[in-house]
Design a protein that fits this description.
By secondary structure, the protein is an alpha+beta fold. The chain contains six helices and 14 strands.
Amino acid sequence: MSAKSQHNNILLAIIGFIAVVMIVAIIGFFAFDKSDEIIQGEVEVSEYRVSSKLPGRVLELRVKEGDFVKAGDTLAILEVPEVDAQRRAAEATQGAAQALSDMADNGARQEQVQAAYQLWQQAQAASEIAEKSYKRVQKLFDEGVMSAQKRDEAFAAYKATEAQVKAAKSQYDMAKSGARIEERRAAEKQAQAAKGAVDVVKSLLKETVQIAQADGEVSDIYPKVGELLGLGSPIMSVALLDDMWGTFNIREDQLKGLKVGDELSAYIPAFGKNIKMKVYYIKDQGSYAVWKATKANGQYDLKTFEVKARPTETFEGLRPGMSLIIKD
């Protein structure tokens, strides 16, 4: 092969190599062209759980998932037979305690007062007779006709009837004036305590009817009709659709000075529209969160921050779980 031919072959090889490099560079430029980074978030909503303070059986569910309820609407009815029995027992106890309190306030019945008065009168009459008998015996004793023993017996009988008069008078006064103030106060307190027990049971019975505490949409119902519920077990969740926000996980190198109060634009794929949102919460997610090493040897890492933002205006049809896209 001549020197000229060999030189041409080398030249062609060099030209071919350069062409290949240029083609690879062009392909790499278009294939690996850096596009905008996408930050994806999600629409979230406040919820509250409906639960009962009492264990019981689900008797009726008045709503189903997806229903919109207003504050005060009945959501579910529970059956708690034990508490109903406690109510009846508490009401009976209250009635008895109130009767004792009324008796203490009103004093003895008129019949009892009258009977005590009659006993007092009888004792007083017996005392008068005993007094007269004693005086006659004393006179006979003074005349020497009656012995001293008979005189002493008549005197003792007279004094005994006097004591009976005092006792009967005391019983009459007590029946007439009624119970002492301490006894009336004690009876009143017992009646109040019994009424408090009834109020407690009635308050617990209200838990058998679960009502909505705020307007919202029933998002989940957990038990079925007929199932038993434990103390504090959730019955359903209600979403407050007027309290929505978007949550984004943003790497710190993508924050670019974002701060609370700033506004951003998010794209909603479900509607193909953008929505304006205002940031109200920024917080790092800690060492457990997703991070990115900036160098192969991992000299330092980029942490991820949780950012929350609320729509600046009401967006009709926006639902929890919908995606929100921010283009960096």
